[in-house]
Write a structure and sequence with these properties.
single chain, 301 residues, mainly alpha, MetI-like fold, elongated, cell membrane, ABC transmembrane type-1 domain-containing protein, MetI-like, MetI-like_sf, transport
């Protein structure tokens, strides 16, 4: 072996067996959780339905046919039609896209904002921490639906604004949780030792603090997705979310509630589909929590 190749091999990044081992242990623990497997399968089914909606739909989701309005489920319209003659099955499929996008995107944005604020507050302390946490207290002073409605009144209607409004309402819970975890972890001996050895603060955060708070962050994020989807549908139900004729489950339930006696499928089917997705997300989140909890990691639930 030449000297050059020896130097390049020595300088090449090595795979850390510890990280691989942790990921493998987590996957094995997750597989033991029946709730995670059942819930994950349900969520995966909805994701696939949303991705392949153009091929699975039997009609264009916004196509109106007043001659076929309010028809019950049949071979031509599997879930029936609404008051505008739109195919409910096709709208449910495309509505899954809106629901999942709102749920995951809003939680991701709220997570990023909350983690940044929580890290700064927990690490800086002093006046910086006081000022940031007073902002967080203001965000937490009202229920999330009320906060989202207030933000929507300022931002306006539309899917993107629903995501931004929900993300802003999620920043507070994430920031408070991350700050509390950072305050606890930064007092541990290995963090103090790294600081005394002159390790840069950014390295301490990446190598020592974040890996020790990632589990509660993931658990909180998993549970927030179902809340985000429910709140997004609630905003559309109240007329503050998605603009018609965009397919949205909350909007479909709102439009169908006036015909609940004559055409119960208009509101009933989107409501059942929404409930099934929420059950799947909650099961997956509970399984994720149990898999990451050392007290239940070896149990099959």
């Amino acid at each position: 072996m030449t000297t050059r190749s020896t130097i390049s091999l020595a300088g090449a990044p090595k795979r850390t067996p510890a990280a691989t081992s942790r990921a493998r242990r987590f996957w094995l623990a997750l597989r033991r959780q029946n709730k995670a497997m059942v819930g994950g399968s349900i969520v995966l089914l909805f994701i696939l339905a949303a991705l392949f909606a153009p091929w699975l739909a039997t009609h264009p989701p916004t196509e109106q046919d007043f001659m076929a309005a309010m028809q019950p489920p049949s071979a031509a319209h599997w879930f029936g039609t609404d008051s505008f003659g739109q195919d409910i099955y096709s709208r449910v499929l495309y509505g899954a896209r809106s629901a999942l996008w709102v749920g995951f995107a809003s939680v991701a944005l709220g997570l990023v904002g909350g983690v940044v604020i929580g890290l700064i507050a927990g690490l800086k302390g002093g006046r910086t921490e006081w000022a940031l946490m007073r902002v967080v207290d203001g965000l937490l002073a009202f229920p999330e639906l009320i906060m989202a409605m207030a933000f929507m009144a300022v931002l306006g209607l539309g899917v993107s604004n629903v995501i931004y409004a929900l993300a802003l309402s999620f920043v507070g819970p994430f920031a408070r949780m991350v700050r509390a975890d950072v305050l606890q972890v930064k007092q541990r001996p290995f963090v103090e030792a790294a600081r005394l050895m002159g390790v840069p603060p950014a390295t301490i955060v990446v190598r020592h603090i974040l890996p020790n708070i990632v589990s509660p962050i993931l658990i909180q994020a998993g549970m927030r997705v179902s809340i985000a989807i429910l709140l997004g549908s609630g905003l559309s139900f109240l007329g503050l979310g998605v603009v018609p004729p965009t397919p949205d489950w909350g909007l479909m339930i709102s439009e169908g509630r006036g015909f609940i006696m004559m055409a119960p499928w208009m509101a009933g089917i989107p409501g059942v589909v929404l409930a099934v997705l929420l059950v799947g997300l909650n099961l997956a989140a509970e399984g994720l929590r149990d898999a990451l909890d050392p007290r239940t990691r070896g149990q099959r639930v």
